[in-house]
Structures are given as C-alpha cells and as structure tokens.
C-alpha cells in the first residue's frame, strides 16, 4: 500500500480540473473561435442535415442529439448556448437561424426548446465545409461510440467576428465582435505582409463592431488592446434630440451599448428621475418595436437637452466600459494574444485545412484517373476485351487475363468487368475522355497548391474574398477617436445671466435674471421661490451659466459644479435638493456659496467664520476638486464657516457683525496659508455677537474721492438699510473691536449683512415670505455709520432672508449673507 501526499494530490487534481475548464468549457479555440459546446451544436446540426437551405427542425431535436452524442451536460446549458447563437443582438453574425421566440434585448427568456425551431445560418455552412475531407483531427466522444471534430475547418475568422466571453479558473476572456469585411481585409493584409505592424492592421480593422451599434471611443485603450491583448474602450448609446410640436425637446435613444439590458436601462433612468438625480424630465417611455430601439425621454420646457444626455451617460448604462481581454486556447494552452497573432493562428489553420483538403482531393482524383486509364484502354480494344471475357470460365479468370493481356492493375481490371455496356457508345466514350482530361488538370492544380506557397496563398485569398463578397455587411458601431471627456458641454450652452437661489433646507435652482423686473424702493416684491413650511432662502447669487459654483459647507468642506448644471426652474419652483448634486455628510449643510469664472494665479480666497476667524489662501489651490469634495478650512469645534470671498493681494476687508460693529483692515495683515489651515483672528467679538458679513474693498487710488471709491450697504433683518462711504471706516489692524457700523434697534432688527455698492448697481432682496424685491442702489440714502438707515422693503411681519447685487454690464461674484 503506497502513501500519497494529500497536498500534491490536491494540487494535481485542481490543475487537471483547471485545464479541463479552460480547454473544454470556458475559453474558445483560436482557430474556429468556438467553445466545445458551440462546436458540438453546429456539428450535430450538420449531421442532421439541418442546413440553411433545408426545413427547420425542433430545437429539442438538436439539443437531444448534442447531449446524447457529444456533450454530456444538462439540456438547459446546451439550449442556452443554442439560443445565444440565434440572437441578432448577441452575435454580430448569427450562426443559427431561429424560428420562434428566442428572447429579447430586454432580457426576456426564450421559449422552451419544444416550441422553437432552428437550422444553421448560411454563414455557418462555411464553418463546416470540407469537414468530410479529412481536413481536421477527430477524437472519440465521451463514451467512445462516435467521433467528433477537434476543431471546425472554418473559412471565417470567427474568434474576432463574433467575439467570446468566458470565465475559467484563474483567467477569463472577453473578446468583442468585429466587422467581417474589415476582418477579411486585415487577414489578407497579414497573409500578404507577414511583417506588418499592429498600426497597419488598425487602419483596416478600425475597431469592434457590436450587433447593437452605438458609438465606441477607442483611442489609447483600443490601441493597447490590439497591441497587447488587453485594454478598455468606452461604448456610448446613440441618441437624437427631436423638437416636439409644443416647442419642447425629446431625447431619443436609438442604440444602446452591447450586452446592456434595455429594460434595466429604462428602469435605471426612471429611478434617477424619481430620485431627482436627473432633473428636467417630464416623461419616459419605451417605443421600441421590430424596426429597432426607440426610448423617448421627454424634457420640461427650458431644460438643456445636452446636460440630460451627459447625465444619462454618467449615471446609467447608456455609457459602459468594455474590458478587452483576448485570451484563447492555442495548442491546448490558454494564451493572451494580440490582434495580429489571432489572425496569424487563423491563417495557419487555413493553410493546414487547405493542404489536407488538397491531399484528400488529389488522392481521390488520382484513384479515379487510374480507373479511367484502364477504361480508356478497354474501350480502345473493346472487341478483344469482349472476346476475352466471353471465353473466360469465371470473373476471376477474366480479370486475370485482362490484367495480363493489357498490363492493367487489379483495380483497373475490376473496373472493366464492372463497366456497363452503355459506356461502349460513342457519346459515353467521349465523356470518359473528357472526364480524364479534367482529372489530369485537377491533379496538376492540386500538386501546384502543395508545391507552391504562392498558389496556396492565392487559394486562401480567393476564399476570403468570396466570404467578404457574400456575407460582409456595413459597420454598425461608429468609431470615434476623440475621448468623450474632451467634449465641452459649455460650447452648447449660452452664457446667460442667471440667479441661483439656495434655501436653508438645501433646495437649489437656477432662474434667468430677466425673470425679475426692477421695482421702486419700498415695494412689496414679486413671488421669488416656493419653499416648504419652516424653510427660507439662505443664499442668492447673480452669476452666469459658464461660471463655477463653489459650495462651502458649515464643516469647512468645498464642492464645485458648473452653474449650468444647477437645475433650471421658474420663480415659483421649489428646486432640486443639493444632496442630488453634491455628497453631504450627516449634520452637514451648505453655509455659503460663490461663483468664479477661473482660478487666477494672482487671486486669493478669503475665508470668514462666525467667531471672527479669517484666512487667506491662493485660489488655484481649490482648482482641482474631487467628486466627494475637498477640505477648504480647518474649523474649531464651536465655529462654523459663514462666507468665502475672492480677493486680490492688496485688497481691504470690512468685517461686519450682527450687533452692528465693523472693522476694516488690509488683507496683507493675513499671511497666505495652506488649504487646510484654520486662519487667524479678524475681529474681537463682544459677548455672543457673531460675524455676518465680509465686504472686500479695493484700495483707494491716490486722489480718488470717497464718493467714487464706493459705499458699504448695510441691511438689517427687518428691511432697513443704508449706504455709508468706505472712508468713514478707519483703517485698523486686524483683531480689534472695530467701530459702529449701524445703529441696531428693535425697529431695524439685527444686521443681516453688508456689501460694497456703486450708484449704478441694483439690489435684489428675498424675504422670508419668499418675495423678491429689486431696487436701484441710488434710491438708498447715503448716511453716516451710526445711523439706522431707511426702510428698503415692506416685509409684512416677515424678515429679510438674503440679498445680492446686479451690477451694470457685469455679473457680480458676491455672496448673499444670511
């Protein structure tokens, strides 16, 4: 009794199992591009004479033959493989012609095998041609009762034509389908130019050609895949934008990426619309039929269709990545191959098939010519032959005398004895001679194939050319070299002036500026934005579509998105929740916002907290923002970020508090700090006072009067405001208690904020009752610091929620203070 190491036995058994899965199940053969189950299905159909020009047979009949003769596995596995070969959305060129329900691109299963019928497609005949001419090797089936082909003698480069996907033990393959016409051109190029480069092949084989069409972004990923066997490409569905009779737009999805379930795609779009991650969609329906795919996405009025299309590409399988991994079995070993190597292995297979076929045909022709030579001798000496046969006692004696008399072989003598009398007529005699001459020419041709490499190449070239002429179809997938990320959506969107509003509960929207008309001072305003009970406006910015919206949270994080990506709404709309646009943590909300057009190297961001801390950091440090946001400032536990301003290195800043004090100092007193620094003290606060505003003031030019330098507009929560010349706020060092900014009384309420204004500016205010008031700044009185100002708006018992400026000819980058 021998001892066996269990470790070695397990390793050996597992390796054998792995090889069995790789070679016998999951990875296709490089020569015919088929896995064993597909090869056995096609061969069983060939044995049943289930060809393209014969009647259909029940799928159950084919499956029964496959599992009974060649493939000892479950019938469902075989039927699933058969079904896939009949699906025009799974195979670039279907190998099975199906009749009945073979499933759909929506993921519907095929009907049971007892209902469906199949036969080989016309192209499949080229896979099995010459299989009876000893062109391939054979092996016993699972019970040694029959023989099955090891590989099919295909004339078609099927591995690249229909591709393949499979997962084995420790490896996988994922080969995309290609266009037959391009493959033939590439194969012939390799045949004629064995030293050709991958780059030369790429000009002929432009890229994968999927049965579902769509667009493929190749570029570097495709080049790597063709050169090394591995790479990733991106596939985008094909969309069109149609104008409806009502003037609205609809997005029509005509083609979807390969292997994407259409029904799941529609469900995903609907889910995103319901979750408000995609805004501006009024209706979604699937109008697909036998003519093709048609998914209709109706848009609300004013929605930019290109933004919705980009959102569909980003959040749904309308854009997918296809990881190319060209693994195939070569001489019973899995190998990663580039596109040229695959074509070389196919050509090597074709050479072997043609040589073996030619030898088979040559042997058959030579045997027939040998018989015809004997028959020709007999016909030329017919009288003597007849007399010799008549005088022989037995057929054996007759054959012996014939071979001896005319120098024939036993085969020729037997052929003369088997010859019918009608062959003695003159017409039949001529036919014999004609057949013999044809055979001699064929024998010469067969010998030339075997003896000349150029003639052999010519045969391969002619057969491939005929395949292309008969079966090639136009390309379905559009190859685009430009990467989709380089397409700038802003080129398609007008840079219009807009107002962005953000409520305390996080609802944000974008409204065209011309929706608000200018009014006189003291007016009651027009309806501004719809908010739910207990919600009110937090920020209002006048900006434009092409600027970047920077959103800073109370926890000191920053998120960035383009203004045009904020969902557009009417004055009365509630808007979309900010959590649908940027990720927020628990207890985190947007504290302040501002818009910038660029992150100039000479600009700084000035951070102000409610506890009077201030920080200056170079703007370019905030240019690159991750999807999850970045840390903008380090805060103490009892502090919150309230606002951020864009400044230049020599600007001055005026910090204004809720209790009516202010301090003015130069930003040069605040040294530039890193992105995550916490800053320094800007103002010394009294009691529970907090900072509510920061006014950035450019330095006064030499000789410039205070009137043209500008005024600080201070606004209180009960609608009072005043303009005060900047010069009345003396320049101090940072960290002091400051001076009186506004006389705070019960009538005015606490200070809501302050902003730098000019006479030509217009003030836009939003009340807690959601009314918008727009007045000219020149209508507001210019008074001293220690005054309470004049009434700017009738609030009807409410409070002022926020305000901003509209400047003459430009859009202000200012922030709306709480």
Enter the CATH topology name of the largest domain: Neuraminidase
Q: Detail the poorly predicted runs.
A: 519-528, 809-818
Arithmetic mean pLDDT: 87
Helix content: 25-40%
CATH class of the largest domain: Mainly Beta
Describe the structure.
There is one protein chain. With 818 residues, this protein is of the alpha+beta class. The protein has four domains: 120 residues, Topoisomerase II, domain 5 (Alpha-Beta Complex), CATH 3.90.199.10; 80 residues, Gyrase A, domain 2 (2-Layer Sandwich), CATH 3.30.1360; 125 residues, Topoisomerase, domain 3, CATH 1.10.268.10; 313 residues, DNA gyrase/topoisomerase IV, subunit A, C-terminal (Neuraminidase, 6 Propeller). The protein is 29% helix and 25% strand. It has 18 helices and 41 strands. The chain has a four-stranded mixed sheet with strand order 14-9-8-17. Strands 10-11-13-12 form a four-stranded antiparallel sheet, covered by helices on one side.
Q: How do you describe this structure in short?
A:
With about 800 residues, the chain is α+β, with helices and mostly antiparallel strands.
Which key phrases capture this entry?
818 residues, alpha+beta, Topoisomerase II, domain 5, Gyrase A, domain 2, Topoisomerase, domain 3, 4 domains, 4-stranded mixed beta sheet, 29% helix, 25% strand, disordered C terminus
């Amino acid at each position: 009794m021998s001892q066996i190491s269990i470790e070695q036995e397990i390793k050996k058994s597992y390796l054998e199992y792995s090889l069995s899965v790789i070679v016998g199940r999951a990875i296709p053969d490089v020569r015919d591009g088929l896995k064993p189950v597909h090869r056995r299905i096609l061969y069983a159909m060939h044995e049943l004479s289930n060809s393209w020009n014969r009647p259909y047979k029940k799928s159950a009949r084919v499956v029964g033959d496959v599992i009974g003769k060649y493939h000892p596995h479950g019938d469902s596995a075989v039927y699933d493989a058969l079904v896939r070969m009949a699906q025009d959305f799974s195979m670039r060129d279907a190998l099975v012609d199906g009749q009945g329900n073979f499933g759909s691109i929506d993921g519907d299963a095929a009907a049971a095998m007892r209902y469906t019928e199949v036969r080989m497609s016309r192209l499949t005949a080229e896979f099995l041609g010459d299989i009876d001419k000893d062109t391939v090797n054979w092996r016993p089936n699972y019970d040694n009762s029959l023989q099955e082909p090891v590989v099919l003698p295909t004339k078609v480069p099927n591995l690249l034509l229909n591709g393949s996907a499979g997962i084995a033990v420790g490896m996988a393959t994922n080969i995309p389908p290609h266009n037959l016409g391009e493959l033939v051109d590439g194969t012939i190029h390799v045949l004629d130019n064995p030293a050709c480069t991958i780059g030369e092949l790429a000009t002929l084989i432009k890229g994968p050609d999927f049965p579902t069409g769509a667009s493929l972004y190749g570029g570097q990923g495709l080049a790597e895949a063709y050169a090394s066997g591995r790479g990733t490409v991106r596939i985008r569905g094909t969309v069109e934008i149609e104008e409806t009779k009502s003037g609205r737009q609809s997005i029509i999805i005509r083609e979807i990426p390969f292997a994407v379930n259409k029904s799941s795609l529609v469900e995903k779009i609907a889910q995103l619309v319901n979750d408000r991650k995609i805004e501006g969609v009024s209706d979604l329906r699937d109008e697909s039929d036998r003519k093709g795919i048609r998914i209709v996405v109706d848009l609300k009025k004013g929605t930019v269709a290109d933004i919705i299309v980009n959102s569909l590409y980003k959040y749904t399988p309308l854009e997918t990545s296809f990881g190319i991994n060209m693994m195939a079995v070569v001489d019973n070993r899995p190998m990663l191959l580039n596109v040229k190597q695959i074509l070389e292995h196919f050509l090597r297979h074709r050479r072997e098939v043609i040589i073996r076929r030619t030898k088979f045909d040559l042997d058959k022709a030579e045997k027939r010519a040998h018989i015809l030579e004997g028959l020709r001798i007999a016909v030329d000496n017919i009288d003597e032959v007849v007399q010799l046969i008549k005088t022989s006692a037995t057929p054996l004696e007759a054959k012996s005398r014939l071979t001896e008399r005319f120098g024939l072989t036993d085969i020729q003598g037997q052929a003369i004895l088997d010859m019918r009398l009608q062959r003695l007529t003159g017409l039949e005699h001529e036919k014999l001679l004609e057949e013999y001459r044809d055979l001699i020419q064929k024998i010469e041709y067969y010998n030339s194939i075997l003896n000349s490499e150029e003639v052999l190449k010519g045969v391969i070239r002619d057969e491939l050319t005929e395949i292309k002429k008969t079966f090639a179809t136009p390309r379905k997938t559009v190859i685009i070299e430009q990467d989709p990320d380089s397409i700038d959506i802003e080129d398609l969107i007008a840079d219009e002036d807009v107002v962005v509003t953000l409520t305390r509960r996080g609802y944000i929207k974008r409204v065209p500026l011309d929706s608000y008309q200018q009014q006189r001072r003291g007016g009651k305003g027009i309806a501004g934005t719809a908010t739910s009970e207990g919600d009110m406006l937090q920020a209002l910015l006048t900006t434009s579509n092409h600027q970047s919206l920077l959103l800073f949270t109370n926890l000191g994080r920053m998120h960035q998105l383009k203004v045009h990506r904020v969902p557009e709404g009417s004055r009365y709309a509630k808007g979309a929740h900010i959590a649908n646009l940027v990720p927020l943590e628990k207890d985190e909300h947007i504290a302040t916002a501002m818009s910038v057009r660029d992150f100039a190297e000479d600009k700084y961001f000035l951070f102000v907290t409610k506890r009077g801390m201030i920080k200056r950091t170079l703007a370019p440090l905030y240019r690159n923002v991750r999807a999850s946001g970045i840390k903008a400032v380090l805060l103490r536990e009892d502090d919150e970020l309230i606002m951020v301003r864009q400044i230049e290195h020599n600007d001055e800043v005026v910090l204004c508090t809720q209790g009516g004090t202010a301090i003015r100092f130069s930003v040069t007193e605040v040294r530039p700090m890193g992105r995550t620094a916490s800053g320094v003290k800007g103002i010394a606060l009294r009691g529970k006072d907090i900072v509510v505003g920061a006014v950035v003031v450019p330095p006064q030019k030499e000789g410039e009067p205070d009137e043209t330098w500008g005024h600080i507009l201070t606004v209180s929560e009960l609608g009072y405001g005043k303009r005060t010349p900047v010069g009345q706020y003396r320049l101090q060092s940072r960290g002091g208690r400051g001076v009186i900014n506004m006389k705070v009384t019960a009538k005015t309420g606490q200070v809501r904020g302050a902003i730098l204004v000019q006479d030509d500016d217009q003030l836009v205010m939003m009340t807690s009752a959601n009314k918008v008031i727009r007045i000219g700044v020149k209508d507001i009185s210019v008074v001293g610091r220690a005054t309470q100002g004049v009434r700017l708006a009738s609030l009807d018992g409410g409070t002022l929620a926020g305000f901003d400026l509209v400047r003459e000819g430009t859009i202000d980058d200012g922030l709306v203070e709480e």
